[in-house]
Amino acid sequence: MRKIVRNLVAGTGVLALTLSLAGTASYAAGHQVSKPTLTGWAALPAGTFVPGSEQSGALVTGNLNGFTAPFADQPIQGFSGIADNGDGTFDVLSDNGYGNQANSGDFLLRVQRLAPVFRTGQVDVLGGVNLTDPDKLIPWALTRPDRVLTGADFDPESIQKRPDGSFWIGDEFGPYLLHFDRAGRLLDAPVALDGVTAPETAARTGATATARSSKGFEGLAQSPDGRYLYALLEGSITGDPAGALRLNEFDLRAKKYTGKRWTYQLDNPDFAIGDAIAVDRNRFLIIERDNGQGATAVVKKIYLATRRGDRLDKTLLVDLMNVANPRRVGGFGPTFTFPFQTIEDVVILDDRTIAVLNDNNFPFSTGRSATAADNNEWITIALPKSLDADERLLK
């Protein structure tokens, strides 16, 4: 029995109101669907901030779509990875800040604790942890002397949670794999990938960049037995075929790469991936997208990718621009679209249900309205066929 927990913070206490969702039948309103169907919608408003935090956005410029910088607090925005806690709450990774290293030095990197409430269409904010390096495991100078990590230090884009509550996070500035404890403290030195260097690291070390900026570990999957991570790059490496992305195997016991890798081929070299998670030991869900938003959004897809030899074969699972919505969930019409520039989160809720979240690039993305900053939307989709996911990956 899956449960969605609504947490209502009132005064000094937390009231938990539990709504039971009995597997697929509940999500699909008691009916098996013949095509991917919207079954839940909730949104966290763009202007949601961590109360009593710190000023942010002092270096942000451009069209802020109705907001004024700097912001008095840290925005809760830019969801780039998600981990299911199995109790209706989720740990969601915020992006690096405001789009680049130069303007994000006052954005504190953070894992947010959230709970969607589909009955009301809201997302409850339950807390979170800032990411820090108190033990000085990062050998280069950080933005802040207190070693609280910022969007000028790393660009976190993917996340996996371990049984001990620690997090492995995929970064784009290295690209690096980063290991944090449940309180957000770095446990190991950043792990680089041989032969792959982002421009941000090249500028710091003098090495030659082999990857483009913002094309690092956008996807991070965990094997069902918990032994391996699979880190998927968002862009091609110098010398590789155009649109060919490397999926790299990382041994969590040895804390090093095994040297095994597979190739995922984009439909178009100009496309990008948004997330990659495991279905079982050989299959993955991968978000693939174009760079459009609103009226220019065309390709926003989720593929089921299977390892075969040294490549990943893929089959379309969901076209996020063409999702059935017969019950008009969220007040949308009979065909629901997810027309956001960056869609960076997918999680399996059960064998026939997935959840998908966008990255709203606060305050810049305008997928729903050309004049308003996007909210962070959270949707659930019922699938016509079972994923037959490994039970160890389902909470």
From TrEMBL:
It comes from the Bacteria. The keyword NADP does not apply. The keyword Calcium does not apply. Residues 74-362 form the Phytase-like domain. Keywords: Signal. SUPFAM superfamilies: Calcium-dependent phosphotriesterase. Residues 1-28 form the signal peptide. InterPro entries: Phytase-like_dom. This is Esterase-like activity of phytase family protein.
